[in-house]
Structure formats: structure tokens, C-alpha cells
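Design job #97: recover the sequence.
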């Protein structure tokens, strides 16, 4: 099956779930879906179409949080990106980790870096950030508050004080 045939098959299978379709190249297509249909669409991509989840990505657009699911159709040599936009103030999506194990870690990353709550995720806990990271402060959001704790500031000052002078020849 060619990539074009695969795209047409997916468009037909998604039917009413499809809110937008854009073919970027002969091997790349973007499909927009409503947040409440992400699980059903992902299940269709994974179990019925046989696509492989390459990765998920998230972007704070300022208007909302865009979550993109990048699915590979290896035999057709193409990538289908299914994406949705969730509300910045209450970003929630159903987890797809129950049927697509590849999503488990990346959902955790998107949760801690962008604040998207993945409902029914089997293990939603910190993966990249320390456990004492300030709640509600998401590093990849445009409004992230960059804070340096007083301990870290003291540590940096101590390191700077012990550093050798710069420039010139040292005895």
C-alpha cells in the first residue's frame, strides 16, 4: 500500500472524528481531532491501522496546549501526526498507555513539563524533574516562572568565590 492509500484509509476510518486534514508532503500528514476523541482515534491508529507510536510532543501555543501523536506507518514509509489542542487552564486528555505502552513515559514527560493531566495513566509521577519541583510550574510553558532556590544561589556564589582569577599568567 502506498502512503496516499494509507492516508485515504485513515481519513475514511476517522470519519466524523476528523476536524482537520493537512498533507505536508507525500509522506507526511497532520490530522486534527477533538480532545475527547484522542483515545478512540489513537486506538484505531494503533490497533486497527497498525501504526507505531514514534513519539508524542507538546507545545504551549499561548492559546492552548497542543498535543501531537506521531504515528509511523513503516510499510508505507509515512508518518501520520494526530493532534489536538487542550485548554491551558485545565489541560486534560485520556491516557493511551493502557493499550499503547510506548506512550507511558512520554505522557509523564508532557505532564510534568507542560501540565497536561493524562487521566487513568498507570504511573503519573515525575520522570525528569525532581520530586520537590514546585507544583503548577511547568518548564515548557510560556508563563513558566524561573526560580533559583536560595540554596542554589548560595552554591553558585561559593563556586564563583573558589574559582581562580581569569586572565593573565598564574604563578
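Job complete. Output follows.
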Amino acid at each position: 500500500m502506498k502512503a496516499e492509500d494509507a492516508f485515504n484509509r485513515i481519513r475514511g476510518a476517522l470519519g466524523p472524528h476528523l476536524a482537520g486534514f493537512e498533507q505536508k508532503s507525500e509522506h507526511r500528514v497532520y490530522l486534527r481531532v477533538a480532545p475527547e476523541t484522542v483515545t478512540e482515534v489513537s486506538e484505531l491508529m494503533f490497533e486497527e491501522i497498525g501504526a507505531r507510536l514514534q513519539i508524542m510532543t507538546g507545545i504551549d501555543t499561548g492559546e492552548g496546549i497542543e498535543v501531537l501523536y506521531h504515528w509511523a506507518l513503516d510499510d508505507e514509509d509515512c508518518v501520520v501526526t494526530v493532534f489536538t489542542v487542550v485548554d491551558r487552564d485545565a489541560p486534560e486528555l485520556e491516557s493511551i498507555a493502557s493499550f499503547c505502552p510506548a506512550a507511558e513515559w512520554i505522557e509523564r514527560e508532557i505532564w510534568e513539563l507542560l501540565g497536561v493531566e493524562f487521566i487513568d495513566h498507570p504511573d503519573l509521577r515525575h520522570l525528569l524533574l525532581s520530586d520537590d519541583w514546585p507544583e503548577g510550574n511547568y518548564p515548557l510553558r510560556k508563563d513558566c516562572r524561573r526560580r533559583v532556590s536560595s540554596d542554589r544561589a548560595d552554591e553558585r556564589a561559593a563556586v564563583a568565590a573558589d574559582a581562580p582569577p581569569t586572565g593573565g599568567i598564574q604563578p
